[in-house]
Amino acid sequence: MTRIDYVSGLNEMYQSQGFPPYRWSEFDSSPWTPFEKLLDQTCLALLSSAGIFRDDQEPFDPWAVNDLSFRQIPADTLFERLKLHHNYFDHRDALKDLNCVFPVHRLKDLEKTGHIGHLAQTAITLGMGRLYKRTALQQETVPRIVELLKGQGTDAVLLVAA
Amino acid sequence: MALVKAPRSAFINFPLGRQCGRPHDTDLQIRILKDALNILVTATIPGEIIDLPYEWDEPFDWAKYLQDMQEMLEEEGSSVQEWKAK
Hints:
Radius of gyration of chain A: 17 Å
Low-confidence stretches of chain A: none
Number of helices of chain A: 4
Largest sheet of chain B: 2 strands, parallel
Oligomer: heterodimer
Mean pLDDT of chain B: 90
Strand order of the largest sheet of chain B: 1-2
Helix content of chain B: 25-40%
Distance between the termini of chain B: 26 Å
Low-confidence stretches of chain B: none
Order of helices and strands of chain B: EHEH
Structural class of chain B: alpha+beta
């Protein structure tokens, strides 16, 4: 199956809707920290940008523009209490089974079978999409997320980008 | 993704919104996650993207993505929102 060139397609679509040209992030190098733990000793945190929130939290705007906020979702939250507001991808399968984009149950399975050490207590979710404030994201949102993750002993983060 | 150069990345050629597999296909979801997490301990080249060996079972392309989005919005009684500066 040929891969979809989402970048070209989205550029064209958003500009036809009146959005300014999007400057996709580009970096010359990749930060690298050798990972010295074994998976079965690792505390893994889940980070999702699929617009998921708990029913008592402020909903994400499914058409978010420049939303730099995030939500903290305890990993033991019942899926019945979670909602997904994100209209930039076809979320119908995810609404049938949130594990498609927010695989908490599967990571819990991997914890039970000893494949990973454990799943961090709190998952982090973002809304994202059409984000034109990268500096604020990097300097304000990300450090707060990093601090939260470090506070729960996270060794590694699985980002499921949506 | 290649230009962002995240240290360790997995790519799966599934339609957007099914990154961890098909709904309720527990075995597939587990296999995908195991493969993705394995990169954490096996990757040696910063910024390299590892392609995961999975095939979606029906054709999809950009036109199908747009069609699916349109169908979803119609089903949910929503419509594409125009740009509003914030």
